[in-house]
Amino acid sequence: MKAAVVIFPGSNRERDVCLALKRASAHEPLRVWHGDAELPAVDLIVLPGGFAYGDYLRCGAMAAHSPIMREVKARAAAGVPVLGICNGFQVLTEAGMLPGALLPNRSLKFICRDVHLRVENSQTIFTSGYEAGQTIRVPTAHGEGNYTADPETLDRLEGEGRVAFRYCRADGALDDEANVNGSARAIAGVFNESRTVLGLMPHPENATDPLLGNTDGQGFFSGLVAALQ
Amino acid sequence: MKARVHIFLKPGVLDPQGKAIGNALASLGFSGVGEVRQGKLVELDLAESDAARARERVEAMCRQLLANPVIEDYAIEIA
Fold first, then answer.
1. Interatomic CA distance for residues B1 and B50, integer angstroms
2. If exposure means fewest CB atoms within 10 Å of the residue's CB, which of A84, A106, A211, B63 is most exposed?
3. Does A205 qualify as catalytic in the annotation?
4. A97 in the Ramachandran plot: left (φ > 0), alpha (ψ -120 to 50) or beta?
């Protein structure tokens, strides 16, 4: 499986996601600079976490109009899977590739800690390594992860099985305290209509190395690699 | 020709920064302040002398980049 990881000025988790992908696929992902207009043929495109363009104007707004994004949109339209993690999720919403937007966290604080996520739909290339309803623990690190969309859009996302993950308690139950950033309906990640584009705020790539004491994110990448091979 | 674009969160969209500012004003003793909403102001210097055309261009800029229509409204002033 060949993956490309897009690097914007200010990206800072590209190395982490490259390591996670390499661990799962035994292939080193390509790193593509945001100013490139061309993208090699790949099976997966990843927009990593970080602070592209210093979050100027709005998180992800400048990156969404980078030269490479025209090509990313064209590939996504042709069915190539695109994964946006954290800042990558913000870029995907700003680029109009996913519905909704990410607002500042309800607490106004940058949240850097492990969270529990409930897998809402396992019938996708991104989540096939998990069972629906399974709870995983992964790190999160963001100041603007408060997902919002109008009620009709939220209803549609839920009705169509396009909610990928929700913030939950360790036992999988939803409550307000577990919804760390105040996201609408505790949504931590959403799919596009064809489930080939996923954006999520937490970082499964940072829970793939046994040395770090938590490998709950391994299923994310092993499932994805298996689905794309 | 100059344009000023006021960008603000749509009514009903949570504005934690506005809320924090409101709390700070209250703690400074400014009473009687209701809801506080924080927005942005973008000033543009345009090579354009026709006000209608300038407005049209700034509208397009707002739709494509300056505002996020999911969460923000905008108002354009041409001077």
1. 8
2. A211
3. yes
4. alpha
For A131, the token pair is 């069972």
Place of tokens 């396009």: A162
Residues of B in contact with A63 (CB under 8 A): none
Residues of A with Cβ-Cβ distance to B65 under 8 angstroms: 57, 61, 65
pLDDT digits (tens, 9 = 90+) for A137-187: 999 999 999 999 999 999 999 999 999 999 999 999 999 999 999 999 999
Residue A159, token pair as written in the block: 């009705």
ipTM: 0.85
What's the pTM?
Answer: 0.94
Q: How many CA atoms lie within 13 A of B11 on its CB side?
A: 0
Instruction: Report residue B45: phi and psi, to 5°.
Output: -100, 115
Q: Report the sign of the C-alpha dihedral through residues A166, A20, A46, A122, in that order.
A: negative
Rounded distance, CA A69 to CA A154, Å? Answer: 26
Backbone angles phi, psi at A185, to 5 degrees: 50, 30
What sign does the CA torsion over A117, A123, A129, A131 have? Answer: positive
